[in-house]
Predict the structure.
Amino acid sequence: VTDLSPKFSAAYKTGLIVLPGEGFADQAVALGDKGKRNLPYDWEMPYYTGLVHHIYKKDYAAAAREFTHASELPGAPANVKYFAALYYKEADQRKIAYELFKNIYETTEDEFIRDRSLKYVLHLEGIFSLEDAVNKFRSQTGRFPNSLAELVSQKIVPSLPVSPLGFNYSYDPASGKISESK
């Protein structure tokens, strides 16, 4: 159908929705790529392709790139950029997610998205401050702290940040890596 009518957007969208559920996620992505070539200003092509990357391929970085692309096209709703930021965070590309959430907070007119974006900004700032504190501790002592509480007891930080999203900040003393969990 898309060869006979390359501008028929419903054929691409239907394929992007149906194919992955039938076990054809790679073919759906290829169809989405074709749709982006033939309908370069249709925000739904990268949007639905991003959903395939997220739901069926579990490739959050690819999903984030698709949602970012979709958010830059005419007519894309404000939540598409928000989804891009979420998936960059899930792909452990926190700096990119932080910048997107900050930009969304500063520019969106959607109150819900503005509020959630601010919470993610503050949440990520908590992670960044803990990473900085762990690095400072390591530079002072030559080792990673045994726990996040040790950052407080050694007066590296006055207190541990609290996520406005209800996440817990987790810490791996072997690697010094900060993570999050619900």
